[in-house]
C-alpha cells in the first residue's frame, strides 16, 4: 500500500515537478508553479486530474478559462489543449494524476526550463507498458 499525506507533501515540494508514484495505469505527481509561472500550453494523449492545494491561478482548458484556488479540481481529458498559470503572489501548489503515466518514473524537475529540456531530449518518457 502507498499512503501519502498529499497536501503536506505537495506543500513541501520545492520543485516544479516531482513524480511520487507510477503504476501500470496511473501516475501521481506534485507540482509547484512559482508566482508568474505556468505549466505551459500543452496537449497530452492521457487524461489528467489536477487538485489545487494552495495559491491562486487560472486554468485554461479547451478555450475556457476559470480561476483556481485551494480545494479546486480540474479534469483535462486526453487530447485537450490546456495551461495553468500562477497569477498570485505565492506558489501555486497542486497534485495531479495522469492516466496512463505521462512522465518518467521517479522524475524530479527543479524548474519548468529543466522539465522542457528533458522532455525535448526524450528523457522524460513514461515507462513502457
From TrEMBL:
Signal sequence, start to end: none
Protein name: Cupin type-2 domain-containing protein
UniProt region (Disordered), positions on chain: 104-129
Record domain Cupin type-2: where: 30-98
Amino acid at each position: 500500500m502507498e499512503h501519502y499525506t498529499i497536501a503536506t507533501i505537495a506543500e513541501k515540494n520545492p520543485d516544479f515537478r516531482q513524480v511520487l508514484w507510477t503504476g501500470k495505469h496511473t501516475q501521481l505527481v506534485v507540482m509547484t508553479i512559482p508566482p508568474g509561472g505556468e505549466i505551459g500550453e500543452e496537449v497530452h494523449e492521457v487524461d489528467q486530474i489536477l487538485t489545487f492545494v494552495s495559491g491562486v491561478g487560472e486554468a485554461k482548458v479547451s478555450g475556457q478559462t476559470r480561476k483556481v484556488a485551494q480545494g479546486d479540481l480540474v479534469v483535462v481529458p486526453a487530447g485537450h489543449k490546456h495551461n495553468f498559470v500562477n497569477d498570485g503572489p505565492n506558489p501555486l501548489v497542486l497534485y495531479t494524476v495522469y492516466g496512463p503515466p505521462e512522465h518518467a518514473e521517479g522524475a524530479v524537475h527543479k524548474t519548468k526550463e529543466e522539465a522542457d529540456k528533458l522532455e525535448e531530449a526524450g528523457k522524460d518518457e513514461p515507462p513502457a507498458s
